[in-house]
Amino acid sequence: MYAKFIKKILPLPSFFEIALSSDEEPHVFPITAAPQDIACPICEGATVCHARTRRRFRHGYAWHIGMLWIELLLPRQRCKDCGFTFDYGLGLVRSSTESFRREITKRCHGRSIADVAREYELPYTTVERWFYTYALDQLVEESALHICVDEFALRKGHNYATSVLNAETGRILAIVPHRDQDAIEAVLKKVTGKIQTVISDFAPAMAGAIEAVYPAAVHVLDRFHLVQFFTDAQQRRRRYLGEAKKHHKSRFIDRCLARKPEQLTAEERQFVQEWHQEDPHTKHIYQALNHMRYVLKATTRTQAKKRLYGFICCVRCWNVLKVRVLSLNVNIRLKNVAACPRFNVWFGLNVPSS
C-alpha cells in the first residue's frame, strides 16, 4: 500500500522502482532502475555497465517536509565493440526531473516567477528558464491591447529568445528564438489585436522593432529596468569604497545601497552615510535612485510629469557621468511614455528637450 501511495505522489516511468525513505532523510526516496539493454550511440553495439554514480534529483514538494528528492545510481556504459564510454542518464537531466519542472511551471500561473522561486528556494533564472521552456505548450491565441515584450535566456550567455505576454492576463502570446531586432519584429507580428501599449526595456532593438511594427502604439519603458540602471551603477561604483569593503562584505554594501532608506535599520543608515562621505559619486547615484522611486510613486499624469521634469533638471547638475547619460536617455525616450494599466502610475509625458 505504501508503494502504491508513493507512486501516486511521485510519478515516474514504469521501469523505476520506488522504495520508502529513511527516518534520517524522510524527503529522499531511493530509486532503482530495472535492467535495460543500452546500445552504444556510436556503433549501436552492446554495452556493459562500466561504473555507477549516485545522484539526487528534485522531483516534488510537500508541506512540512519541503523538497522531495529521488536518489538513484546512474550507470556509465562501455561499448564492447568500439570501447566508447558514456553516461546514461535514464532520461534525467541536471538536478531535477521533467515532472518537477513542469509542476513548478504550473505554479507560475497567476503568480510572479520571483515569488515561486523564493517559495521553492530555487534560483530565479532557473525558474524563468523552465517557464519559457515549457511555454510553447501553453501558448494561447487571444486579442490584446497592452503587451509586454522581453528577452530571456535559454542558456545564459549562449542562447536567448524573445517572448510577448498579455499585460492584462499574464498569458504568453508568442515566442521566437534570438533577441535581435528582426526576432523582436517577428514575435510582435504574431500578436493579434489593436495594440495600444507595448512595455519593454531600454534596448535600442526593442524601440526600433516597436516603432516598425506598431508605430501608433505607446512605448512604455519598464520601471524595473529603469531602477536597475541605478542599482547596476552603484555596484560598479562600489570598487571605490575601499574603506567600506574592509569592514563589510560586498553583498551587504549592495543591499544597503539598493534598498529604500525606510527599509534599513538605524545602524545600516549610519553605514550608508559613512559610505557617502567616502565617495560623493556613490551618494549622487543613491540620491538619483531614490528620486526616481519618488517619481514612480506619482498617481496622476500631471504629478508624474512634474516629478520627472524635476528629476531630470536635478541630475543634470551632478558630476556623475552615468546618471547624466541616463537622464538624457530618459529625456529623449520618455516623450511618448505611458504606464501599463496594471500599475497605478500613468506617464504620458512630453518632457522638454535639453
Overall body shape: globular
Q: What letter string, H or E per element, gives the SSE order? A: HEEEEEHHHEEEHEHEHHHHHHH
Number of helices: 13
Strand content: 15-25%
Multimeric status of the protein? single chain
> Helical amount among residues, as a percent range?
40-55%
Number of strands: 10
Tell me the major beta sheet.
5 strands, mixed
Structural class, by secondary structure, is alpha/beta
| Rg calc | 26 Å
What do the pLDDT scores average to? 76
> Termini separation (Å)?
76 Å
Number of domains: 4
Show unreliable segments.
1-9, 335-354
Domain Transposase IS204/IS1001/IS1096/IS1165 DDE: 147-312
InterPro entries: Transpos_ISL3 (IPR047951), Transposase_DDE (IPR002560)
Protein name: Transposase IS204/IS1001/IS1096/IS1165 DDE domain-containing protein
Explain this structure.
By secondary structure, the chain is of the alpha/beta class. The protein folds into 4 domains: 2-95, no CATH class; 97-138; 142-221, Ribonuclease H-like superfamily/Ribonuclease H (Nucleotidyltransferase, domain 5, 2-Layer Sandwich); 223-336. 40% of the residues lie in helices and 21% in strands. The chain has 13 helices and 10 strands. It has helices at 2-9, 98-107, 113-119, 124-133, 181-189, 204-213, 223-237, 242-247, 250-258, 266-278, 280-296, 301-315, 321-333, and strands spanning 16-18, 28-33, 47-62, 66-79, 85-87, 146-155, 159-166, 172-177, 197-200, 218-221. Strands 1, 2, 3, 4 and 5 form a 5-stranded mixed sheet that branches. A 5-stranded mixed sheet has the order 8-7-6-9-10, with helices on both faces. Helix 3 (113-119) packs across helix 4 (124-133). The protein is globular, with a radius of gyration of 26 Å. The model is unreliable at 1-9 and 335-354 (pLDDT under 50).
